[in-house]
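Before the break, one more example. Copy the sequence into your notebook; we will annotate it together after we see the structure.
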Amino acid sequence: MKTRSFSLFLFFCPLCLWAQQTYVKVSAEYTDKNEMVLWAENYSHIPHTVTLRFEEVSNTTSAMGGDKRSFVVGTGKRRLMSLRPIDAKRRASARYRAFYELGNTVARPDTAFVYLFPLRPGTLTQCRIMSAIERLPGDDSGRPVGLSLRFREGDTVVAARAGVVTDVNDKARVSQTSGRMFRGTENYVQIYHADGSFALYKYFADAGVLVQPGDNVRPGDPLGIISDGDPSTGGAKLGFMIYTWEEVPSDDPDKMRKRGRPWLPRFWLGEAGEGYPQKSVKYTVEHPEEYVTREMNKKEKKKFVERKEK
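Here is what the structure looks like once it is written out:
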């Protein structure tokens, strides 16, 4: 139980680190009609959700004190909203607080999406279901939150779904901590998906990550080389988790608290079709073309087919 508890904590570390960094700036401008225009500029390669909490407004009905408005901002600058004046001779004004979250926290993640196993086709693997021991509102402890997939030493980890790389670490020096039950950090890759969900892939070899933040990946694209692992704990394995943000109550009205909520997705299991992996069952990895190309547009599908035929 203690080992699983520590593993679950580490899964959330990358997401928490991102949440503490600011890649978005909110600013205000005034027009010649005395409108107050609010803008947000996103300096990162990943969409961010900007939430404005209005504390006080003057000479406008476009917002009220206590209102909370959320906007999804892609890379670059976006106009959020305008506060129009009641009295056209005076400026509309507002005092507000801005909060930022990585990704699109407004979207509803597709929890029915079927993922591919993050190994190369033809590889034989077994899974262990990772369970939560922390109780979240509306859930019971022990619910499945991720997978531990058995790898062979030196295997390549590939993307289970299309997305954008948001964060990586391959400098955890895991080779120097082999045999330890707990480590302070791990090598990982974090990927953002189109539906607002995130994937976390863990336990890469030192200097074994092959992607960097901002890279677009398709299903089956290589992400890195798995760590050798510890023979006493079953050898090489990959930790894999899907999660999204959710807002939780806060005693401090000046702060917004978010946490990652994981769930166990369905996978393509090969001969067994779509479903949830079962403990100790061996699966031969398959990446059917219709699953690889699901989130591609027509141009991307055409290029994919052309490359495949060469």
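The first helix runs from residue 2 to 19. Helices lie at 2-19, 289-292, 298-309. Try to locate both features in your own notes.
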